[in-house]
Amino acid sequence: MALIELNNKSGGSTGLLKLVAIDNGRVSSGASGDVLSVTAAKGQYLRLTYLITGSTAPELGITLNLSGTDVIINEYLTDYTVSSVSASGTRFGISSSFGDTNVYPAGKLFQSSELCTSFTVTKVSGTTAQLIDYVYQTLEKLT
Amino acid sequence: MITCVLLNGDWVEGTPVVGEKFKKVNSKGGELISYYAEPEIPKLPTSITKRAFTRRLNPVIREALRNTTDEMAIDIREDLNFTSHPDLSDPDLITSLFYLVYAGFMTQAESDYVLNTPVTEDEV
Known about the structure:
CATH topology of chain A: Jelly Rolls
Largest sheet of chain A: 6 strands, mixed
CATH class of chain A: Mainly Beta
Largest interface: A-B, 24 and 17 residues
Structural class of chain A: mainly beta
Oligomer: heterodimer
Radius of gyration of chain B: 24 Å
Strand content of chain B: 15-25%
Largest sheet of chain B: 4 strands, antiparallel
């Protein structure tokens, strides 16, 4: 059982948490607006552990919102090859491993998001050209 | 977990098709809204262990290969002996089985069974 002690962004401590579910999926290409929107049930928390395109090309113009805050605004969502990300790169992605170990953890590549109560992935304009793969955990207080 | 699709602006229980907006609601009320895409199906490798390969050959075929004086069949048997993980998609292996069918060591159906039976996790 995973035990995690982290402070909630909104203030106060979440206390010890236990992992109750791991969900994954794939957003189709051709999607527009909020292409992935997840809201936790009351008393539960979410953590994105994977957000990468499902191909070898990035998706342009993606905004990532965690618990109501845009933490990534209108940037490239990277593909899993991460072929040219440097620390100053504007691509972002979430994964525990990337294809090119030379660049990890440069740029905006994260192993997971912060705990949140909701997250939204938005295609800022037009429609998505790539599949987008995601994995997130659902956690709740250990009782 | 309930899955819904949009019908005339309302969420109704249903199964989404590729590209369709859908919503999933879990038992505690948490929800996900996205656009449906088929999940990627994991591909099993085509190489299997030598033991698994041997199990795909019935005892009559194995005995015939052990006792053969057919030089081609002996070569095939020796090749298999030196291969730790025969690759069922390897053109050389496919040609070898084609020869074994031609030479009467196995039937076409038996060859198809060896090559085309889906690989299981305990064979890799």
